[in-house]
Amino acid sequence: QKEVEQDPGPLSVPEGAIVSLNCTYSNSAFQYFMWYRQYSRKGPELLMYTYSSGNKEDGRFTAQVDKSSKYISLFIRDSQPSDSATYLCAMSPSGDMRFGAGTRLTVKP
Amino acid sequence: GAVVSQHPSRVICKSGTSVKIECRSLDFQATTMFWYRQFPKQSLMLMATSNEGSKATYEQGVEKDKFLINHASLTLSTLTVTSAHPEDSSFYICSARDRQGNNQPQHFGDGTRLSIL
Fold first, then answer.
1. By percentage, how much of chain A surpasses pLDDT 90?
2. How many whole angstroms separate alpha carbon A58 and alpha carbon A74?
3. Shortest CA distance to A38 belongs to which of A108, A101, A109?
4. Looking at the partner chain, which of A43, A46, A94 has a beta carbon nearest the beta carbon of B93?
């Protein structure tokens, strides 16, 4: 079993839809959780960074962490074509990060 | 803030050539930088962890004599692919972590696309 599981998709939604991206993990020592967005032929860009359980909101993006279920989510409201990218979850106990496989998202106009 | 610059963005060269890739943290100091390799439609594969002033730590299966890493300052790490061959063609990405602590997230460069003919 991989430490971090993420459905690679692809996921296709119409513009304006709410997008839900998820990762599960097996290591209960993970405390720091991140979401990165990667456009084609570019490096990943940090979107959200959270510590322990709870919610964090930044504009149209909301990150949720449920440590009891070992489950994290990223919600994108009012999705735009410019949100089309690969979204990677990442997490760490303290230091080394573990990445999910990434979910390819396409938002259609 | 937290900008990482990676250079060059694209390299095309002949088999047997050695290629150096630079990774710079522009607005923060990074005691630790990371080098990844990414194949098409796949996630990041950590190659090595680069620590300022000390030897890099390589992941299992990564040849340290093939992929030379130097981290001579708090803002610069370099990866040299020695005697590159077509199988080394890939997308190489670096990241850097702020020296403030291990809990800081990694910030990535825009990658280097290496093509060996």
1. 83
2. 11
3. A101
4. A43
Q: How far apart are CA A40 and CA A25, in angstroms?
A: 26
Q: Find the mean pLDDT for residues A76-103.
A: 92
**Mean pLDDT to the nearest integer, B98-109:** 84
Q: Is A87 on the interface with B (CB under 8 A)?
A: no
Q: Which of A69, A68, A82, A64 is nearest to A20 (CA)?
A: A64
Please check whether residue B8 is in contact with residue B110, taking contact to mean a CB–CB distance below 8 angstroms.
no
Q: d(Cα B100, Cα B103) in Å, to the nearest integer?
A: 8
| Residue A10 preceded by cis peptide, ω within 30 | yes
C-alpha distance from A4 to closest chain B C-alpha (Å) = 12
Q: Which residues of B touch A99 (CB under 8 A)?
A: 43-44
- Condensed to tens digits (0 to 9), the pLDDT of residues B52-62 reads 888 899 999 99
Residue B6 and residue B108: Cα distance in Å, rounded? 9
DSSP A82: G
Cβ neighbourhood burial of A46 (10 Å; 0-12, 13-18, 19+): middle
For chain B, what is the largest distance between any 2 Cα atoms, rounded to a whole number of angstroms?
A: 41
How close, in Å, is residue A91 to chain B by CA atoms? 9
Query: Which residues in chain A are contacts of B106 at CB distance < 8 A?
Result: 46, 90, 97
Burial of B32 from C-beta contacts in 10 A (0-12 / 13-18 / 19+): buried
**Contacting A residues, span 38-67, partner chain B, CB-CB under 8 Å:** 41-46, 49, 51
